[in-house]
Amino acid sequence: MTFLLNSHNVFDYLVDRGFCTHSEQALSKVEPIAAKNFNLLVSLSNGRKLLVKQERHNQEGKAAAEFLNEWRIQEFLQQLSELGQIQSWIPVVLHFDAEHSIIIFSYLDEYRDLADFYGKENVFPTKVTHAIATILATVHRDTFNRQNYQDFFSSKSEHTTPDHMPNLIRSLERIGPEIFGQVPTDGLKFFALYQRYDSLGQAIRELTDTCKPCCLTHNDLKLNNILLHKDWEQAGDSIVRLIDWERSTWGDPAFDFGTLIASYLQLWLGSLVMSQSLTIEESLRLAAIPLEQLQPSIAALTSTYLDTFPEILEHRPDFLRRVVQFAGFALIQQIQAMIQYQKSFGNTGIAMLQVAKTLLCRPEQSMPTIFGAAAVQLTQLHAAAV
Q: Is residue 259 within 8 Å of 336, Cβ to Cβ?
């Protein structure tokens, strides 16, 4: 598995495509950025910065072509001037090389990773979540049930639903002997626990079966796919950008919102104090970032989203219930990522699985805990008004 570009040959690539000249190379700088796609940040001598992203190529020289979706969003917005506002909330693609799976963006130097902001500052201002919810709800609302928009995506892709959902179900339910060579001993505990809970698998299957694609969805809306302006307290309307649209599709808005909620829950679950002397319930209560600290932000996400896109409750009266379930589904995905990349499934994973099971199997009872009682009451008022 190899990458085509590196710090030594990226300038040749940029020169061939007219981004700079060979004479500028001596005064320019290249910095590798840790990411699965081996990103390169190129700082040109004129002060311009380019983010060069590329996919791995296998031994046959082929890549997964994930950037096609990123480029498809650009094509979609360029053709539809009425969606110009959305275009201002995502990065600008300067060049797309489908043959070599390389894509180049203008680097957003004045922004920082939201996950990094939360991790270092340990504050969760509602102004930030208000901005995120406004963007997300606007994307969903302005593309909602528009047949011509759906036709655009359907004509470009064979898939119109989050295909990783059925893939996840298959991987959990069709476990063979090969699993022992792929998963560490700790990871096997997860599969044993998952299969013990029939209600968990049933809840995921029902959630998948009732998925109703009706608008453009980001499909991977985690905190590290959201950028926050470095001067967010003073900046105007553009304090947030949504990046990495590689999985975007015509999908279910509850999936996007649930994935986002799960990212906030992971801040809580990732800060648990784990000890053999503590029960899971005690560890959840003793978290360094307690759930109560995050509830105002989650409540602001919910109220702003529904203020911006109230029609969703008319379309799906069970919208918030499904959001809670998709949040649980996203936690299951995170557990699988931990097993795959970190090769572990310890007490933190067990706590995450317990929370995921509660969200998926008992969503109504989970709403006040996740959103806060005030947000649930607000949702009921929205539902009564539409």
A: no
